[in-house]
């Protein structure tokens, strides 16, 4: 577990992600190596000294991964609400059973079919990560002996 704050920037310098839910980074607690934490961020934090700040470049495999063609699929337009035929490029959140909700992008639409891309918008991107580590600890087992 770690108590930290971080920001992610594109190679062009645009800030694209911050820890927390606000405009500026918030200090948050994360479980390192959990599915909700970028693998590269977990590796960096694991090597950091408490109280330090690090700036590293995360390759796509350490961040949001590469492009996965199997995440592009067609679904019947009838599965969408009758009054909605989404526009191309629109981003929407969908819930995948057994997973958290994910953001998808509408790629193509016809009267019968909608093509959806489930790849993360930052797939295949190198990202600059700025992270400050406040605290790190091992999570205790809750199991009784």
Describe the structure.
The protein has 145 residues and is mainly beta. It folds into 2 domains: 2-65 and 122-136, Chitinase A, domain 3 (Roll), CATH 3.10.50; 69-117, Thrombin, subunit H (Beta Barrel), CATH 2.40.10. Helices cover 6% and strands 38% of the residues. It has one helix at 39-47, and strands spanning 2-9, 15-18, 28-30, 53-58, 72-76, 91-95, 101-109, 113-117, 127-136. The mean pLDDT is 87.
CATH architecture identity of the largest domain: Roll
Beta-strand share of residues: 35-45%
Largest sheet: 5 strands, antiparallel
Classified by CATH, the class of the largest domain is: Alpha Beta
Number of helices: 1
Q: What is the number of strand segments?
A: 9
Number of individual domains: 2
Structural class: mainly beta
Shape, please? elongated
The percent range for helix content is under 10%
Termini distance?
Answer: 23 Å
User: How do the helices and strands follow one another from N- to C-terminus?
Assistant: EEEHEEEEEE
Uncertain spans, ≥5 residues at pLDDT below 50?
A: none
Q: What's the Cα radius of gyration?
A: 18 Å
Task: Please specify the SSE layout and strand pairing.
Layout: E1 2-9, E2 15-18, E3 28-30, H1 39-47, E4 53-58, E5 72-76, E6 91-95, E7 101-109, E8 113-117, E9 127-136
Antiparallel strand pairs: 1-2, 1-3, 1-9, 4-9, 5-8, 6-7, 7-8
Descriptive terms for the model:
Thrombin, subunit H; mainly beta; 9 strands; Chitinase A, domain 3; four-stranded antiparallel sheet; 2 domains; 6% helix; five-stranded antiparallel sheet; elongated; 145 residues; 1 helix
Provide a short characterization of the protein structure.
The protein is mostly beta strands. The chain contains 1 helix and 9 strands, in the order E-E-E-H-E-E-E-E-E-E.
